């Protein structure tokens, strides 16, 4: 029959073994979070200019939609497969949008071939008014793209202008920013390259 001291020693030994096994199980099975991925590491640290950027918790895929360039030429979003997208929803009657467009124009001018700036107009008057606006304001690095009947905006649940939605080169929504931002700043450019082109 075991003495009281022996029983106490065995109890402590059993407790120590339980704690060790539990810790090992946590390391193997529990020490992972969705944000520990390459995507989270590359996108989590945002520059000050993008403080209002809300990262997607459940990334939406890029919709299978068609835009109209200059009001007549159909451009399928599938044509941008494998390229990161900065998709800005705007309109010529939207005052904040107008203030933001020059920064997007400069971002587009200096963007690498792997990052594309897509200004998606919600103007109901069609391509001519958008083309005129871009020409008059010398926004020569931005295409005149129209969202027919707002179909793409509805698919992405965009309800405010301007709204910019970021897509990775794998075609998944990374996040969105409602309101204007200084897209042409060096810190923002570096962030977009790092975040949208991260391997996932």
Explain what the structure shows.
The chain has helices spanning 4-30, 38-43, 95-110, 127-136, 151-155, 186-196; strands at residues 54-55, 66-69, 73-76, 84-90, 115-121, 145-146, 163-167, 173-178. The chain has 200 residues and is an alpha+beta fold. The protein has 2 domains: 1-32; 34-196, Glutaredoxin (3-Layer(aba) Sandwich). The protein is built from 6 helices and 8 strands.
Describe the structure using short key phrases.
6 helices, 2 domains, 38% helix, 200 residues, single chain, 8 strands, alpha+beta, Glutaredoxin
CATH class of the largest domain: Alpha Beta
| Major sheet strand order | 1-8-7-4-5-6-2-3
The major beta sheet can be summarized as: 8 strands, mixed
Structural class: alpha+beta
Q: Average pLDDT, to the nearest integer?
A: 85
Percent of residues in helices: 25-40%
Unreliable sequence segments: 18-38
Q: Give the tally of β-strands.
A: 8
End-to-end gap: 61 Å
CATH architecture of the largest domain: 3-Layer(aba) Sandwich
Short description:
Mean pLDDT is 85; it is low at 18-38. With 200 residues, this protein is of the alpha+beta class.
Secondary structure: elements and pairs:
Layout: H1 4-30, H2 38-43, E1 54-55, E2 66-69, E3 73-76, E4 84-90, H3 95-110, E5 115-121, H4 127-136, E6 145-146, H5 151-155, E7 163-167, E8 173-178, H6 186-196
Parallel strand pairs: 4-5, 5-6
Antiparallel strand pairs: 1-8, 2-3, 2-6, 4-7, 7-8
């Amino acid at each position: 029959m075991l003495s009281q001291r022996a029983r106490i020693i065995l109890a402590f030994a059993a407790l120590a073994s339980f704690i060790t096994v539990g810790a090992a199980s946590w390391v193997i099975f529990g020490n992972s979070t969705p944000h520990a991925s390459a995507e989270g590491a590359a996108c989590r640290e945002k520059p000050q200019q993008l403080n209002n950027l809300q990262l997607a918790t459940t990334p939406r895929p890029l919709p299978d939609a068609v835009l109209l360039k200059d009001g007549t030429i159909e451009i399928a979003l599938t044509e941008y497969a494998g390229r990161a997208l900065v998709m800005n929803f705007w309109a010529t009657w939207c005052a904040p949008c107008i203030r933001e467009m020059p920064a997007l124009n400069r971002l587009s001018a200096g963007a690498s071939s792997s990052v594309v700036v897509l200004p998606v107009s919600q103007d109901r008057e069609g391509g001519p008014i958008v083309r005129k606006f871009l020409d008059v304001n010398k926004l020569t690095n931005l295409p005149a793209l129209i969202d027919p009947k707002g179909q793409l905006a509805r698919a992405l649940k965009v309800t405010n202008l301007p709204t910019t939605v970021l897509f990775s080169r794998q075609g998944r929504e990374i996040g969105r920013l409602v309101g204007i931002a200084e897209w042409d700043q060096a810190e923002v450019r570096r962030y977009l390259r790092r975040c949208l082109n991260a391997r996932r």
